[in-house]
Amino acid sequence: MTxxxxxxxxxxxxxxxxxxAAAPHNSAPTPLDTELLxxxxxxxxxxxxxxxxERPVSAAESAHxxxxxxRRADGEPLAYLTGHREFWSLDxxxxxxxxxxxxxxxxxxxxxxxLRPQATGRIADxxxxxxxIALSLAHERPQWQVVATDASAAALEVAxxxxxxxxxxxxxxxGDWYAPLADERFDLLLSNPPxxxxxxPAMQALRHEPAIALTPGTDALSCLxxxxxxxxxxxxxxxxxxxxxxxxxxxxLRDALVLAGLRHVRSHRDLSxxxxxxxxxxx
Length: 283
Fold this sequence. Notes:
- This protein has 2 domains: 7-75, Helicase, Ruva Protein, domain 3, CATH 1.10.8; 97-282, 3-Layer(aba) Sandwich (Rossmann fold), CATH 3.40.50.150.
- Helices cover 37% and strands 19% of the residues.
- It contains 11 helices and 9 strands.
- It has helices spanning 7-16, 31-42, 46-51, 59-73, 78-82, 106-115, 132-140, 153-166, 202-205, 222-230, 250-259; strands at residues 84-87, 90-93, 122-126, 145-150, 171-174, 186-191, 235-244, 262-269, 275-282.
- Strand 8 (262-269) and strand 9 (275-282) form a beta hairpin.
- Helix 2 packs antiparallel against helix 4 and helix 10 (222-230) packs parallel to helix 11 (250-259).
- It is elongated, with a radius of gyration of 21 Å.
- It starts with 6 loop residues before the first helix and ends with a strand.
């Protein structure tokens, strides 16, 4: 007789038998992954799994859970499997059309709030993806006029859905970098652009996320340089450009901002100690 399925048996199964790790890039999901996926499938909070390990699980729920577990073992981001990711204490919907928001990107939010303490201002987030940066800023500063651009119409649909779900107002525009801004000027320009070289081995681990949001090609700095070069004509006097970049790209990006005529150029480190954002001010 087949044993009845319950929470306890499903949580134990993936740790005891691991056919999921057979492929070259696979790895067994962590216990946390396992619990989060099962809680997602059952529509409950994670803590309830350990509080009620005897809870029965249907065959359909079990099949769904094991399918998600296999996808996680293949390296697919947990956020794509659950459809959500927390960023700046807000709940964002994510799909494979957008990059999964990273904790280190919250440094952009911190720098923007520090550089623009005023209650009002005009802000543009270039390459918004899920809208995480733009919507987090608009949530913190409801009187800011925030514009968010992206070259991907599919990404903008995800961002618009997040705007509606969070009840935060942002103006979304389709287009590449500064093109949708025409001749407008802003107090703050922010971007987390693609900055991983196409031939970087790290791209393999990121293969499930949209390449357009990760790499500009073999020249990892091309998007960062383009943003630096176009900033002055879209910044108000005293306005700031703030860019996220790779941990080893700070020095080159500082040079690019200085060459673009910006002043007070400086980089800031993330919690791992890597230079993660660089900023410069229009003279």
